[in-house]
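JOB MANIFEST
job_type = single_chain_structure
chain_count = 1
residues = 638
[input]
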Amino acid sequence: MTTNQATTTAGAVPAARTAPGARPALPGRPFPLGATPGEHLGIAGTNFALASSVASSVTLCLFDAAGAETQIPLADNDADIWHAFVPGAGPGQSYGYRVGGPWEPARGLRCNPAKLLLDPYAKAVSGTVSFGPEVLGQDETDPGKPSTLDSAGHVPRSLVVDPEFGWQDGKRPWHRYADTVLYEIHVKGFTMRHPDIPPPLRGTYAGLGHEAAIAHLTDLGVTTVELLPVHQNVPEPFLLARGLTNYWGYNTIGFFAPHDGYSAAVRAGRPGGQVAEFKTMVDALHQAGLEVILDVVFNHTAEAGPDGPALCFRGIDNTAYYRVDPGHPGAYIDTTGCGNALNVGDPITLQLMMDSLRYWLTEMHADGFRFDLAPTLARQEGAFDKVSAFLDMASQDPVISRAKLVAEPWDVGQMDSYDLGRFPPLWREWNGKYRDTMRDFWRSHPVGLGEFATRFCGSSDLYGTAGRRPTASVNLITVHDGFTLRDLVSYDDKHNEANGEHNRDGTSDNRSWNCGAEGPATDPGILALRACQSRAMLTTLMLSFGVPLLLGGDEMGRTQGGNNNAYCQDNEMTWYVHGKFVPAATARTREPGRCRHGKRREAGHGTRTHKRLGSPAFCAYRNFGAHRAGDFGESEMR
C-alpha cells in the first residue's frame, strides 16, 4: 500500500446507511480498473477497482433508486489500486467514490472524502452537476481548508454497465486513406431538425443511426463520419449563468462513457441506455459501409483550474492526473486555455488514455480518433516531443496503431504550439496551412500559384521530407471551429454577439470575403458569386491530394449567421436544416463555371484521380471543374 502523508487531512466520510442484509465486500481484483460485473468465487456481483497513489482510504458508495447511500470501505490495495468485489451489485447499479487522504493544496494534494467522485473508468454516467459551493473541494471562504459540505446531492453518478451486445456489423468497413472522405458532424445538430427522423429520436445516437440520416450520408458519398465529442461532458458554470451550454462538448468528465444527453433511451427514463444505443448507432453506420471516428479531448477535463469543482480526477489523485508547476505544485500548467492540462507523463493518466482508446475501438467499435489540441498529449516534459510516451505507446499498441489517428496539430500559449508536420508517420494532421492558402486564393489574395500548388498537391514541404505520403494531410476549408462555408462567402467579420462576450470571442482572422454585402443578400449577382465561390472551394477540396474533410451541412448551405465560435449555441443557430444538395444525376459537368471577375479557372488538370471523384459528394460540386471525372486517369495513391 502506498500513501503520501501531509500535515492536513480532510474530514471523515459523511455518514450513510448500511443496507439491511447486504453481503460484505470480498477482496477483488486490481485489474481491470473500473466496475466490471461478473462472477467471483461462484458469486455474482461486480468488481470495483480505482487507482490512486495518494489516498489513505477509499470508500465505495452505492446508491439505490431512492438515492440512499450505502458505503463500503475498500480494504485492499495492490500497487496503488484499491479494489473490492461486491456480491449482488450488477448492471444498472449507481455508485461513486469518496477518497480520503492528504489535503495540502500548496503541494497539489486535494483529497476530501466529503466529495462524491465519479469513477474515471465509468462506462456510463447518470445525472448532472448542480454548481455551487458543495462541489468545491476547498472551503469557499477559506480556500486553504477542505470543504465540509457533502457534494452527493449535486453531482452525477457512475453506473455499472452490461457489456453484452449483439453486433451485426460483421466485417467492419476499412477505407484506405486515399479513398477516405471525412464528414464532421455533431450528433445532436445533424439530427435535431431532420424531418424524416421521428421526433423522439432527433438529437440522439438513435437518430444518427436512423435510416433517414444514413441515407443522407450514403447519398452524399462520404466514407467516414467524424463525430464531435461524445464522451460524457458537463458545461462550464459561466455558460449556464448566461443561459447557454457547452454545445460542442469539449469539456470531458468521463473518457469511457457516451454522453447521456444524446440518448433517446435516457430521455425515455432508462439511465445507462446510452451505451447500447451508441453501439446500435455504430452498428448501423458500419452496415452502411461508413466508418466512425470520434473527436476526443485528452488534453484537459471539465474540472477547470485548481479551484474548480471536484468531480472526479482532482479528488482522486490531483498530481497524477494534472500537470502542475514543479516549483508551485498548487498551480496548474495550462496549455489548453481551459484551466488544466492532463499529465501525460504520469503512468496513471497514460494508462487511462490508452485503456480508453482501446475500449472505444474494441467494445464500442469506433474506427479511429481525432485528437483535440494534440500537441498537449506529447508534452510530458513540457516541450512537444514526437517520441513522447503517449505517441510512442500509440504507435506500438497492436490495437490503437491500426486505427485512424488524426491530430489537431496545435495547442495554446507555448513557443512550439504550432506543430503542423511534426507528428510521427502513423498520424494524419489537420492542415491549417491548406485551409489558409485556399481561403486566400479564392478571395484573390496574392498567395501565389506556387503556394497554391504546394497545398493542392499534398503539402510536400510539410510531409515529403519525412517520407510521409500526401494523405498525411487532412485538407479542410471549414470545420466546426469557425465559419461555415456559406458564412465564409457571406461575412467579412465575425458576429458572435449571441455568445454573451460582446463579440470578443472567436478569431478575427477568418480569411473570408462577403462578395459585396455583409450577411444575407438578395442581389442575384452577389448570390451567384457566393455560389460560385462555394463550388470553387469545395471542388478544390475534393481534387486536392490528401484526405478531404467536409464540414457537415456545407453541402446544404448551412449558416450560423456569421457566428464563428458557436460552441455554446445549442439551438437553431447550429442545428442543421436538411435540404437537398445537388445530386450527381443533375450536376452540370460539361461547362466550366465562371469565378470572380468573370474569369474562367480550370480545375482538375493532370493524371491523378481518386475514388471520391465519382462520389456524389464530388459530383454535386464538380460543375465548377473543366473536366468530367471520366477524363482522369485511373492511377491511385495512398
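[summary]
The chain has a mean pLDDT of 90.
The radius of gyration is 26 Å.
exit_status = 0
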